[in-house]
Design brief:
single chain, 321 residues, alpha/beta, Rossmann fold, 2 domains, 33% helix
Length: 321
């Protein structure tokens, strides 16, 4: 029997709103301290005695990690690892694991939902109905906003991992041609399209790559200028992959047709964020909840339990460090 360990869950409210079953975690031989959320100033105190720390988006920097003398496992309740100082963990021989593939069904449907909303202008027509515009017209329907079919359009994917491939399957089912971007500034691999040419060809461009130094502001003013004026941009990956100021400018000027964004550089965002201003047209912003279906959040908890069990058995899985 494993001895009881101490664990801290730093941002419980990011995945549990009382609607999922937490027994997979509570039945482990771990004494959990659960916090709805944790500020930067609260991290050190809350993890100081912990053997295991679970964080979704709370930052674990070097100072916090070095203050936790008993820490042996950092479990990131997400796929992205940019909120944890991996070098600091490596230096302390702390195992870092993440959760992979758990959110694909939810993110895929959200991505496609954003695309269809933009193509059909559904979000604008819903607003028109609410304002009474339909009731005031002299014909049976509203056609004030251009509706575009997905069939025959080019769907471009940046990042062809699990999410990119599953989105591609749905896009093809809608009759779209799928192209995949090569790495920016390199000769594209087989079955990939040169990055600049990719931007020129795509009618819908969807981002599914991780945030890394070489993908920070991957889409900026120059890249937006290469896109078709009728193209749509979708980002359900990480906010900083797009230069938000450049995107706001491109939408205001009509340089591209629209954008669907689920992620911003800092979250929750300040009200002054360039994509949250009322004068940015043809833009849908959702609050980083593409991943957030109840089924996905339950899957996340179950996988985290499996990861902890594997680590306790000295056969860790999903190891990052």
């Amino acid at each position: 029997m494993h001895k009881t360990l101490k664990g801290a869950i730093l941002d419980m409210r990011s995945f549990d709103r009382g609607d999922i079953d937490l027994r997979a975690l509570s039945q482990l031989p771990v004494s959990w301290s659960e916090y709805p959320s944790t500020t930067a100033g609260e991290v050190a105190k809350r993890i100081q005695d912990a053997n295991i720390v679970i964080t979704n988006k709370v930052v674990l920097d070097r100072a916090g990690i070095e203050s936790a003398k008993n820490l042996s496992l950092v479990l990131i309740a997400a796929t992205g690892t940019d909120n944890v100082d991996l070098d600091a963990c490596r230096g302390r021989n702390i195992t870092v694991c993440n959760v992979r593939g758990y959110s694909a069904p939810s993110v895929v449907q959200h991505t496609v939902g954003l695309m269809l909303n933009l193509l059909t202008q559904q979000y604008r027509y819903i607003q028109d109905v609410g304002k009474g515009t339909w009731s005031e017209t002299d014909v049976f329907c509203l056609l004030d906003h251009l509706i575009v079919e997905a069939k025959g359009k080019v769907f471009g994917i940046i990042g062809y991992g699990t999410l990119g491939r599953q989105v591609a399957t749905v896009a093809r089912a809608l009759g779209m041609e799928v192209i995949v971007a090569g790495r920016k500034g390199t000769v594209p691999a087989p079955e990939r399209v040169d990055f600049d040419e990719f931007l020129k060809q795509g009618d819908v461009i969807s981002i599914h790559c991780p945030l890394m130094p070489d993908t920070h502001h991957l889409i900026g003013r120059n890249e937006l200028s290469l896109m078709k004026p009728e193209a749509f941009l979708i980002n359900t990956a990480r906010g900083a992959i797009i230069d938000s100021h450049a995107l706001a400018g491109a939408l205001r000027s009509g340089q591209i047709a629209g954008a669907g964004i689920d992620v911003l550089e800092s979250e929750p965002p300040d009200v002054s964020h360039p994509l949250l201003q009322g004068d940015v047209p043809n833009l849908i912003v959702t609050p980083h909840n593409a991943w957030g279906s109840r089924e996905t959040r339950q899957r996340l908890v179950n996988i985290m339990s499996d990861i902890i069990k594997a680590w306790q058995s000295s056969s860790p899985i999903n190891v990052v460090v």
